[in-house]
Amino acid sequence: MLNVFVSGLERQTGKTFIAAGAAAAMQSLSFNTCVYKPIQTGAISLNGLKSSADVAYIKRIDPNIEVAATYMLSSYESPFVGAYEDNLKIDIGIICAEYKELSKSMDCGIVEGTNSISSPILPDITELDLVKALSVPVVIVINPKVTSINFAISALKYVKSEQVNLKGVILNRHEKNSDNLEEKYFAQIIKEFCDVQILGSVPDYGDLSGCSPEVIISNIINNIDLENMFGLKIAKLHRFV
Fold this sequence. Notes:
By secondary structure, the protein is α/β, with parallel strands linked by helices. The chain has helices spanning 15-28, 53-61, 79-85, 92-103, 127-134, 149-161, 181-184, 186-194, 213-223, 226-230; strands spanning 2-8, 33-40, 44-46, 49-51, 66-72, 108-112, 120-122, 125-126, 138-142, 166-172, 198-202. It is built from ten helices and eleven strands. The model has no long low-confidence stretch (mean pLDDT 91).
């Protein structure tokens, strides 16, 4: 199965938008696709069942995408804090078993992280350890309007030092010709300083509620290197070139 873990360096990077858009794009290319959110924060209770705006957003883009979550936490804080607040204990073994089961019926699996790659999940266990446990490649989504170049360099070097399969970086809400020179040269700087691949640069679409699924899929296909993201030559992609 094709799989990737979509994570970020901090909050508000747009991980859900990238994960949902990539999933919808792969689904449109005839890959049976799942978005697995091992730990969903900010969940709400409706008629005794927990759901979230993130899950609803993914389903709005393409209702055929399978969406699953193992832990639905009420708090928006780190999984460790949220689980403590909800009186739950997160079990990495259960997460790995559920993802393995999901993988049996999927062509493509996208795992979406929580707040950041360094978010604490259990004592001495972070999201980066979860990436290792699942043994899937990781893609880091960075919003240059939120993350400074200094922090991005140090964080990416840390991720690389942990010997995970870092496929590359996707810049979200990125203005390539920004008057802010740090944002303008963001891709070039982190590529040179961290020796990481830039898989794509997605512009700021503003209020995403106004974007149709067709527009989102088209822009993901045109702005993200899905072939390198998933490590596969996709013949149907070349119809869009």
